[in-house]
Design brief:
heterodimer; A: alpha+beta; 7-stranded antiparallel β-sheet; 5-stranded antiparallel β-sheet; 15 helices; 20% strand; globular; B: alpha+beta; 17 helices
Chain lengths: 636, 696
C-alpha cells in the first residue's frame, strides 16, 4: 500500500460505538481515572528510561486511544507530543486495519503516515476486551538515534530514507511473541543500541501498564460505561473550547508573517511563515496559505503529527490557559474538533513524499507564535509579546571505542516568553510547545566526554516594554574528545515581535570557539560538523519581545531591573526614558525622566533590541571556566 | 516516662501528654497563634500539664512538630539571602530545570523567578571551578570572594549561601569562602553546599542550600525562643523537633540544618498512624489524615516508611533534595466545595471553604455547599453532637446550599447530590491510595487503613470498601494522631555523599570509606545529642540505578564488609525494588551507585499507653437513633441509624452499621452491612467485606 495513497488529515468523525447514559458521579470518577492512567504511563516511561532526552527532558507522550485513534487521555509531558498519537494510530492502521491481534506490539515512526517526525518513535499495544478491539495504549518518545546519515540530528537530509530508518506499522511482538529478526533489524541499525533498547523497553512497559489499568476499569464499570464516559469527556472538552472561541468576534486575524533563517543548506534564503486566524462562530481555522514552498532538505513539517498538533496547542493554550481559565479541561479528542488547519500541499507545512522532514520544531513553534500575535488585537489580555519560538536542539556525538558504540548527547536549549498583560515575561525556560528539563551540568560532565563551561542568563538586557520580555541564556559546551555536532535551530535573523508598543526582542546566535583565533559564526542548522577535542560552542538564545509601551513602565520598576541586570543604565534611558542622578545609588532623576519620556512619546526612540544592538558590540561572555579550558586544551 | 507532644498546624495546636508509669494519657487542642506559634505552644504545654495535675518542670521529654519552616517558604517571608557562586553560572537558581509547571499556560508564573529565594542582585559570582574528577580547573579568586562578601554585607542580606559546582567532590573552595564569610560577615546565617548537602545535581543542591539559608534565621530564632521559654518553665530535657525524614532531631541538630524541618508536618501523622496501627495489631498501614482543606495519604509496610522520589521532593514550588517521607497531599477535605462547572461536570474541590467562612452549616456566612454540608444533609453529622455539642450546625443552610447548587444544576434531590459529592471526594482519595499502593507494588488487601484528622473517620469505611483494605482503624484520638506520632518516633539524622561508582568496577575500599565517613558523622551527632552507644543504630542506604538511567532508587544495604555477598544482596534487592516500582527488572544491565547515605537512629523508649476498660455492651454508649441516608444495594435510602458516644464505649463492644460514633473532634461512620468492635486499647476497628479482586 503506497504512502502516497494515504489521505492526509482525515479525521475519523464522530464515534459510532453505541453509547449509554453515564451518571454524573461515575463520569467524574472515570475522568479522574483516565487522567491517572496517562500520568502513570508517562511516569513509568521517564523514570525508567535510559536516555536523558526522555528521562530528563520528558520528550514523550503517553495515553489511551479508541480503536479509530480518538484520544481519551494523554499525559502532561511535552506538549509537542500531545495530540500526535491519534495520527500515528491512523497511520499504522493504513497498513494494519483489521489485522491487529491481542498481544501485538506495534512500532511506528513514518512521518508521512501520522508520525510527528521520525525520531519520535511510537509504541502501541492494542486493548482487547471480550474479543473486541476497544483501543490502544500508546506512547511516543524521542529516541537518541534512528540510523539517519548523521548521529542524532539530520536537518540536512536528502529525503526521508536518509533521515532515519522508517518503521511503518511494524509488529515488534506478534500475539505476545517477540519478532526476533525484526528486533535485530531495529536495534542493529541505530548508533545507540543499548540506550534505544532501554528506552523502547520502558515504552513497552508503559503501554502494558496502560492497557492493564484500562482493562481494570472496563472490568469494573463495563465497556459500555467506560467508553461512553470517554466520549462524554470528549464532548465536554469540545464544548468548553467552543464556548471560548465563540466569544471572539468573527473575522480574519492577521496575516502575521515571520521568517525562518534558512533550510539548513541554502544559507541566504529565508523561509516565509504566513499565518491567518479565521474565526467563524465556534470554529477556528489556522490558515498557512502563503507560506514557503517545501524545501529540499529535512526542514519540512509533517502535516498531521506536527503541524496539526501545534495548531491545537496554540488554540487551547490561549483560550483555556490553565492559570486564568477556572476549570481543568482534559486534553482529549474534543479539543481538536473545533480547530481546522489549512496548509496547501507542497508547502513546508504539507510537503510531498519523500521530502525529508526530520527537523520541524522551530517551524511549528513559529506557527504557534504567529497565531498568538494574530490574536493580539482581539485578545489583548490572553496573548504575549513575540516569543523566542525556536530552539537550538543539538546532538553531540562520538564513537566510544571501549564500548563499540556511539556516545550521543541530545540537548534542548531553552528560550524565553514575551511580556504579558499585567506581568513580566518568563525568562530562560522552554517556550510554548517545548517543555523539557535540562540535564544537570554535573550529570553532563560526569557522564559524557564534555564539559559545560558557562550556563546563565545572556548578558544582554531584556526587550523593553511596559511588561518586559524574557531573557534567554548563554551556554558554552566543550568537547573533551573528537566528535561531531549537529543542530536544528532558528531565530538567528528574525527577532520576536513586540506588541502594543513593546520592543522587538533580540535574535539568537551560535558561535564555534568564540573569542579565540578559531572563532566561526555558525548558522543555527548544521549537520554532522566535526569538532576537535577542546573545541567548543556558544549559544545565546533569543530575548523575547516586550508587551506595551516601555514609557508606561514605572521608573521604579526600571530601577529594579537595573539592580537585577535585567536592563542596563543605557537602555533604561534609551527605551524607558528613565534617567538616574547617580549611577551608583541609582537615584532616579524625576525631572529629567519626565522630560525625556515626553520627548520619546512624541518621537519614538527605537522599537527593536536587535536593531539597538546593531550599533553596539554584544557584551562579552565572562566565564573563567571557558578561558581556563582554552588554556588547558590549547585553544588559543 | 512523662512526655508531651505538641503539633502546631495551620488552624490548631494539638497536644498529647503521656505518662507511661501512671498510665495516663491526655489530649488538648487550642487555636494556633500564627504571629508567634511558640506562644500557643507554651500556653498549650502549661494548660495540658495543668490538666494532668502536674507542671512543665516534671516533663521528661518534649517533642515538637512545626510547620514554621514550610510556612516561611509558602508565604515567601524568609530572610534576604545572598549567594556566592561560580562565575559563569550565576543563574542556576533562575533557570532551574527550564521546565514550566504547566503545559498549557502562557500566563503561569515560574515561582523560582516570580519569588526567587535569592534575588538576582544578590547572586554574586567568583572565579573558581572544580571539574568532574575533583581537580581544580580555575583556582579560587579569594580577593574577589572577599569583595563579594563585603558587597553582600553592605547590601543588607541576612544569610549567605555558598554554592559551587562539584563541591561534593572537592569542598576546598567552598570551605575557604565560608572562612571568609565568617571573617567578614560573622553575623550572617551561613549555608554551605558541601556541608548541608554534598550531593550532585547542581540546581537541586543550590535550591536546597539556599532554602536552608532562607528559612535559617527565622527558624533558629523560633527554636531558640521556644527553648528559652521551656527553660523558663523548668523543663529539664531539651526540645526535639520532627524532621521530614521521619525522625526527630534535637534543637541543636535541627538548627544546624533547618532545611530538614521542611515538610515535616504530614510526617508525624504517618508515624502516629503506624503506631496506632501496630497497637491495633496491624503492621501494614495506609494512613489517611483528612482535615478541612486537604487529605494526607501515607503508606508503611511492616512499619517502614517510604521515601519520596527525588523529582517529587518539593516544598511548595521549590525543589529541595532532602529525604522526605512519601506523603501524598490532595485537595480534598471537609471544606471542599461542590459545584457544577460551565460544561456540566460535577466537581468537588480542590477549592475549599476552609475554616473561615467554613461550610454553610457553620453559619458563619458560608453559602457554598461543602462536603461537610453534604454529610449534614445525609444525616451523618447531627447538629446536637457536633464538636461535642460545642458548636451548632445550621442544617437548613446546608440543605439550601445543595438545593440551589449542584442538586438544581444536575436535576437531583439534595440527598443524591450530597451522596454524589461524598462519592467524588471518596474516589479522589481512593485514587491517591491506589497510586501509592497497588501502583507501587503493594496490595491494599494486606493493609489496614488508619483514619486520622477530624474528617478521616467520616470517609474511611467507604474508602476502604473501594480501595480494598480489609480493616479500618480509628485511633482513640484521631484529631491528634500527628501529636501522638511525635511521641512514637526515634531520633533520625540522614547524611549523604556522592560517590558515583559503577557496580561492575566497584572500588570497595572507597565505598566503604564513604560509608564510614558518614557513619562517623551520624554517630558524632547522636553522641552530642546525649545518646548512649547501645541506643544508637546506624543504617546504610545506597541510591542505585541501572547504568544509563537518570534516577535512583533507595536500597537499604548491609553494614560490614563490601564483598561478593554484599554485592549479590544489593544487586538482588535493587532488582526487586526496581520491579516493584516499575514492574520490570533488568538483571543483565550493569548498575551504578551515585550516592551513599547513612541514617543515624537514636532509639527512644517505646511509648506505652494504658488499656481501655472492658465490659458492658455498646448499648450503654448509645445516645440517639435517627434516620440517615445511605446507599443500600445500589439504592439511596433513609435507614435507622444508631449514634454512639465514643467516650462511653468499652473494649470488646461491638457495633453494627449503620452506626455513627461521635467524639469531641471527630465522627466515625460505619455504613450499613459493616460492623466494628472496640479493641483493648480503645481503637474502633471496622471490618470491611473486601471484594475478591484488587481494584483498578
Amino acid at each position: 500500500m503506497s504512502v502516497t495513497e494515504y489521505e492526509v488529515g482525515r479525521r475519523p468523525g464522530p464515534p459510532t460505538r453505541k453509547r449509554v447514559e453515564v451518571d454524573p458521579i461515575t463520569l467524574r470518577v472515570l475522568g479522574g481515572a483516565f487522567h491517572a492512567i496517562a500520568k502513570e504511563m508517562a511516569g513509568v516511561l521517564f523514570r525508567m528510561s535510559y536516555s536523558s532526552i526522555i528521562r530528563e527532558s520528558e520528550d514523550l507522550g503517553a495515553g489511551i486511544f479508541d480503536a479509530e485513534g480518538r484520544e481519551l487521555c494523554e499525559s502532561d509531558s511535552t506538549p509537542m507530543h500531545i495530540g500526535s498519537l491519534p495520527w500515528y494510530i491512523r497511520g499504522f492502521l493504513h497498513r494494519l486495519d483489521g489485522q491487529i491481534e491481542d498481544g501485538d506490539v506495534i512500532v511506528h515512526n513514518h512521518p508521512y503516515l501520522g508520525a510527528s517526525h521520525s525520531p519520535d518513535v511510537a509504541v502501541a499495544v492494542p486493548i482487547f476486551h471480550e474479543g473486541e478491539l476497544l483501543g490502544y495504549a500508546a506512547v511516543t518518545a524521542h529516541v537518541l538515534d534512528v540510523g539517519g546519515s548523521f548521529p542524532g540530528i539530520n536537518a540536512d537530509a536528502f529525503d526521508v530514507y536518509a533521515e532515519a530508518k522508517m518503521y511503518n506499522a511494524l509488529r515488534w511482538y506478534e500475539r505476545g511473541e517477540l519478532n526476533e529478526d525484526l528486533d535485530r533489524m531495529i536495534f542493529d541499525n541505530v548508533r545507540t543500541e543499548t540506550m534505544n533498547r532501554g528506552d523502547m523497553n520502558a515504552m513497552l512497559a508503559a503501554c502494558q501498564l496502560g492497557k492493564e489499568r484500562f482493562l481494570r476499569l472496563v472490568e469494573r464499570y463495563g465497556a459500555e460505561v467506560v467508553m461512553s464516559a470517554a466520549y462524554d469527556w470528549m464532548d465536554y472538552s469540545e464544548k468548553m473550547l467552543r464556548q471560548e472561541i465563540e466569544k471572539i468576534p468573527d473575522g480574519t486575524y492577521g496575516p502575521i508573517v515571520g521568517w525562518l533563517d534558512d533550510d539548513a543548506r541554502n544559507r541566504d534564503t529565508r523561509l516565509r511563515v504566513e499565518t491567518r486566524v479565521v474565526v467563524e462562530g465556534d470554529e477556528i481555522t489556522i490558515d498557512l496559505t502563503g507560506s514557503n514552498p517545501e524545501v529540499p532538505t529535512g526542514y519540512n513539517v509533517p502535516f498531521e503529527g506536527s503541524l496539526l498538533v501545534s495548531c491545537y496547542y496554540a488554540v487551547r493554550t490561549i483560550l483555556l490557559d490553565e492559570v486564568t481559565f477556572p476549570e481543568h479541561v482534559p486534553q482529549n479528542d474534543g479539543v481538536f474538533r473545533p480547530v481546522e488547519v489549512i496548509a496547501p500541499k507542497g508547502t513546508i507545512f504539507n510537503p510531498n513524499f519523500p521530502r525529508a522532514c526530520f527537523s520541524r520544531f522551530c517551524q511549528t513553534q513559529r506557527v504557534v507564535d504567529n497565531v498568538n500575535l494574530a490574536l493580539a488585537e482581539a485578545l489583548p489580555e490572553k496573548v504575549t509579546g513575540g516569543n523566542s519560538a525556536g530552539i537550538h536542539f543539538c546532538a553531540y556525538a562520538g564513537f566510544d571505542e571501549s564500548l563499540g558504540e556511539y556516545w550521543l548527547y541530545l540537548e534542548v536549549n531553552e528560550g524565553s516568553y514575551g511580556g504579558r498583560y499585567g506581568k513580566d515575561a518568563m525568562d530562560s525556560v522552554d517556550n510554548l510547545m517545548a517543555n523539557t528539563r535540562n540535564n544537570p551540568i554535573e550529570e553532563l560532565d560526569m557522564r559524557f566526554p564534555m564539559r559545560c563551561d558557562q550556563y546563565e542568563l545572556r548578558p544582554e538586557p531584556a526587550a523593553p516594554g511596559k511588561w518586559r520580555g524574557g531573557v534567554g541564556i548563554i551556554r558554552r559546551n566543550r568537547f573533551l574528545v573528537d566528535g561531531t555536532y549537529s543542530c536544528e535551530g532558528d531565530r538567528q535573523t528574525d527577532p520576536p515581535q513586540g506588541v502594543f508598543g513593546g520592543w522587538h526582542g533580540l535574535v539568537a546566535s551560535c558561535r564555534k570557539n568564540p573569542d579565540t583565533s578559531r572563532q566561526e559564526i555558525l548558522p543555527a542548522k548544521v549537520t554532522g560538523i566535526p569538532f576537535a577535542a577542546g573545541e567548543f560552542i556558544e549559544f545565546r538564545e533569543p530575548n523575547a519581545a516586550g508587551y506595551g509601551d516601555p514609557l508606561e513602565r514605572p521608573a521604579e520598576a526600571v530601577r529594579e531591573d537595573v539592580l537585577d541586570d535585567f536592563t542596563t543604565i543605557e537602555l533604561a534611558r534609551d527605551a524607558y526614558g528613565v534617567v538616574f542622578k547617580d549611577e551608583t545609588t541609582l537615584e532616579i532623576d524625576d525631572g529629567a525622566t519626565e522630560a525625556l519620556r515626553a520627548e520619546f512619546a512624541a518621537h519614538r526612540n527605537g522599537s527593536s533590541l536587535t536593531e539597538w544592538y546593531s550599533e553596539r558590540e554584544l557584551p562579552p561572555s565572562s566565564a573563567p571556566t571557558s578561558t581556563a579550558g582554552n588554556v588547558q586544551l590549547g585553544i588559543t | 516516662v512523662r512526655r508531651l507532644g505538641v503539633d502546631v498546624g495551620g488552624t490548631f495546636t494539638d497536644l498529647i501528654y503521656v505518662d507511661d508509669e501512671a498510665g495516663q494519657i491526655l489530649v488538648h487542642k487550642l487555636p494556633t497563634t500564627p504571629d508567634d506559634p511558640s506562644q500557643g505552644t507554651v500556653q498549650g504545654i502549661k494548660e495540658l500539664t495543668g490538666l494532668a495535675g502536674t507542671d512543665p518542670s516534671q516533663l521528661e521529654q518534649v517533642f515538637h512538630g512545626t510547620t514554621i519552616a514550610t510556612n516561611i517558604v509558602i508565604e515567601h517571608n524568609g530572610a534576604t539571602v545572598g549567594l556566592i557562586t561560580t562565575e559563569g553560572y550565576r543563574d542556576i537558581l533562575h533557570i532551574a530545570r527550564h521546565k514550566k509547571p504547566l503545559n498549557f499556560s502562557n500566563y503561569q508564573d515560574l515561582p523560582w523567578q516570580r519569588y526567587p529565594i535569592v534575588r538576582r542582585r544578590y547572586r554574586l559570582t567568583v572565579p573558581e571551578r572544580i571539574t568532574r574528577d575533583g581537580s581544580v580547573l580555575v583556582p579560587l579568586d579569594e580577593e574577589k570572594a572577599r569583595e563579594q562578601v563585603r558587597r553582600l554585607k553592605e547590601s543588607g542580606v541576612e544569610a549567605v549561601a555558598v554554592c559551587f559546582l562539584f563541591s561534593f567532590l572537592n569542598a576546598e573552595h567552598e570551605a575557604r569562602v565560608a572562612e571568609i564569610v565568617r571573617e567578614e560577615f560573622p553575623e550572617a546565617f551561613l549555608s554551605v553546599s558541601s556541608e548541608v548537602l554534598p550531593q550532585y545535581r547542581e540546581y537541586e543542591r543550590f535550591s536546597t542550600v539556599c532554602l536552608n539559608a532562607y528559612i535559617g534565621p527565622r527558624v533558629s530564632s523560633y527554636v531558640r525562643r521556644l527553648e528559652d521559654e521551656l527553660e523558663a518553665m523548668n523543663v529539664k530535657t531539651g526540645l526535639h523537633l520532627m524532621t521530614s525524614a521521619s525522625g526527630v532531631a534535637t534543637a541543636e541538630g535541627a538548627v544546624a540544618r533547618p532545611v530538614n524541618l521542611l515538610m515535616s508536618g504530614p510526617v508525624a501523622g504517618v508515624v502516629g498512624g503506624i503506631w496506632a496501627g501496630r497497637q491495633a495489631g496491624y503492621d501494614n498501614v495506609i494512613t489517611l489524615d483528612v482535615g478541612g482543606t486537604s487529605a494526607d495519604i501515607g503508606l508503611a509496610q511492616e512499619g517502614r516508611l517510604r521515601m519520596k522520589h527525588l523529582l517529587d521532593t518539593r516544598v511548595g514550588p521549590y525543589q529541595a533534595m532532602i529525604p522526605m517521607v512519601d506523603v501524598d497531599t490532595i485537595g480534598a477535605g471537609g471544606g471542599s466545595i461542590a459545584y457544577v462547572d460551565a460544561g456540566g461536570i460535577f466537581r468537588v474541590g480542590p477549592r475549599s471553604a476552609g475554616a473561615d467562612p467554613g461550610p454553610a452549616a457553620y453559619g458563619r456566612g458560608g453559602t457554598e455547599p461543602t462536603a461537610t454540608d453534604a454529610m449534614v444533609n445525609l444525616g451523618w453529622l447531627l447538629p446536637e453532637t457536633f464538636l461535642g455539642g460545642g458548636m451548632s450546625l445550621d442544617a437548613g443552610a446546608a440543605r439550601r446550599a445543595f438545593e440551589e447548587g449542584p442538586a438544581k444544576a444536575l436535576g437531583m434531590t439534595v440527598e443524591e447530590a450530597s451522596m454524589g459529592a461524598v462519592q467524588i471526594l471518596t474516589h479522589s482519595m481512593v485514587q491517591s491510595i491506589e497510586e501509592n499502593s497497588v501502583r507501587k507494588g503493594y496490595d491494599p488487601r494486606d493493609f489496614a487503613l488508619v483514619a486520622e484528622g477530624g474528617a478521616g473517620p467520616l470517609f474511611a469505611a467507604q474508602i476502604a470498601l473501594e480501595a480494598g483494605t480489609p480493616w479500618v482503624v480509628v485511633p482513640n484520638y484521631p484529631g491528634v494522631t500527628a501529636a501522638l506520632g511525635l511521641l512514637a518516633t526515634d531520633m533520625v539524622y540522614e547524611y549523604v555523599s556522592t560517590v558515583y561508582q559503577r557496580f561492575s568496577t566497584l572500588d570497595a575500599a572507597a565505598l566503604q570509606a564513604g560509608f564510614e565517613e558518614l557513619e562517623e558523622q551520624a554517630r558524632r551527632q547522636l553522641e552530642e545529642d546525649g545518646l548512649p552507644a547501645d541506643r544508637i543504630l546506624i543504617q546504610r542506604v545506597a541510591d542505585c540505578r541501572y547504568l544509563g538511567q537518570g534516577y535512583e532508587l533507595r536500597v537499604d544495604v548491609p553494614s560490614g564488609a563490601i564483598d561478593d555477598t554484599w554485592r549479590k544482596k544489593v544487586r538482588a534487592d535493587f532488582d526487586d525494588i526496581h520491579e516493584r516500582e516499575y514492574s520490570r527488572r533488568f538483571e543483565d544491565s550493569d548498575m551504578e551507585i551515585p550516592n551513599v547515605r547513612v541514617r543515624g537512629i537514636g532509639l527512644m523508649p517505646a511509648l506505652h499507653v494504658p488499656e481501655t476498660e472492658a465490659g458492658g455492651s455498646a448499648d450503654d454508649a448509645l445516645r440517639y437513633e435517627r434516620d440517615a441516608w445511605f446507599r443500600v444495594g445500589g439504592e439511596l435510602k433513609q435507614v435507622p441509624t444508631l449514634f454512639y458516644d465514643r467516650a462511653a464505649l468499652k473494649a470488646g463492644n461491638e457495633l453494627d452499621g449503620p452506626a455513627i460514633v461521635n467524639q469531641y473532634d471527630s465522627t466515625t461512620v460505619i455504613p450499613p452491612g459493616l460492623s466494628a468492635r472496640i479493641d483493648r486499647f480503645g481503637n474502633v476497628v471496622i471490618a470491611i467485606a473486601v471484594r475478591e479482586e484488587v481494584p483498578a
